[in-house]
Amino acid sequence: MSDAQRIPPGSATGQDPDTSPFNDTGPIAVGPAAPGCKKRDPIIVAEGVRRSFGALKAVDVDHVEIPRHKITALIGPNGAGKTTFFNLLTGFDTPDSGSWTFDGNNLAGIRPHRVARLGMVRTFQLTKVMGKLTVIENMRLGGADQPGEALWRAMFPWLWRARETELTRTADSLLAMFKLAEKREDYAASLSGGQRKLLEMARALMAEPRLIMLDEPMAGVNPALTQSLLDHIKNLKSTGTTVLFVEHDMHVVRHIADWVIVMAEGRVVAEGPPKEVMQDQAVIDAYLGAHHDVDLGAPEGIALLEDVLSEDAESVVGTEDAGELLTVHEEPDTQDPYGRQP
Ligand SMILES: Nc1ncnc2c1ncn2[C@@H]1O[C@H](COP(=O)(O)OP(=O)(O)OP(=O)(O)O)[C@@H](O)[C@H]1O
């Protein structure tokens, strides 16, 4: 299925992720899963991407492909190079060598705002919302910037007003979905850490990305919001948006990821479907470390790991919000924020 058939993210509420046309369940990889394996339909293809800081090889990726219309988790121990890899792919940092394409476009050397305009948008581990702007002002800033917009605005102010009205309608619809409507006029600085994460994700969706990259979306999010954030991520996939996210909470990874890529010391050491990856010896050695004796292939092993994770303040495991993801959403939002008729 092509990206042209995508549904804008803001209009996803009420759609059942399990019946979405984008939920094709065929194999993701061509052949067996292995580090650097080829995908049937990759949206990102990265080749020989390396970045060192002094003697430290922070990223040393030979080849990796990110599958289109899937949720891919990038996991690995602290310092594995995950955020640096995100920074490189999105133009926030420059590699020593390497190339990568997004939907066939070569992105090496392309600056972050142009990467975003091409449809690849990211959020940050430490949110970058503008504290001195209100929530709605932050949202409007995220709207996809149209070519020649400044000129447009100066010469045809009435056209700009129409565009601003459209942006505001989209923003309000996304704020409602992310349960931030009541905070619309508040300064972003007054939001909790978790609410800022939601705002950053909602703002990223204003650009109607084809790929959204989320750096630790759950960190700092209160358990009451975690479930709805997980639902939003699943919903994005059902609208045809590809998701790549960095996450430490294995419970989250296991529940929402279609594919997992494991990094350690800058390299891709394993990849595959979540269940398989969590039984991989390289992952157990590199990532699960102290819990290497836990058998993740057995229910007892998983229960034991969940006990360990439940002691982690950021984990939803063991909280009342843990459990299966909701696939039925409260009130379907019949208003399309992009103004289209059903
Ligand atoms: N600007 C920088 N200058 C020097 N070293 C850096 C810089 N950015 C990252 N590093 C180092 O590169 C390595 C990879 O860091 P990175 O933040 O990408 O890891 P990570 O996998 O995202 O870790 P975490 O899970 O803790 O966020 C680390 O050893 C880090 O200290």
Automatic annotation (TrEMBL):
SUPFAM superfamilies: P-loop containing nucleoside triphosphate hydrolases
Residue intervals of the ABC transporter domain: 44-290
Record bears the keyword Membrane: no
InterPro entries (alphabetical): AAA+_ATPase, ABC_AA/LPS_Transport, ABC_transporter-like_ATP-bd, ABC_transporter-like_CS, BCA_ABC_TP_C, P-loop_NTPase
UniProt keyword annotations, A-Z: ATP-binding, Nucleotide-binding, Transport
Residue ranges, compositional bias (Polar residues): 12-23
Ranges for region Disordered: 1-33, 313-342
Matches recorded under Pfam families: ABC_tran, BCA_ABC_TP_C
SMART domains given in the database record: AAA
PROSITE patterns: ABC_TRANSPORTER_1 (PS00211), ABC_TRANSPORTER_2 (PS50893)
Gene Ontology molecular functions: ATP binding
Stated name of the protein: Branched-chain amino acid transport system ATP-binding protein
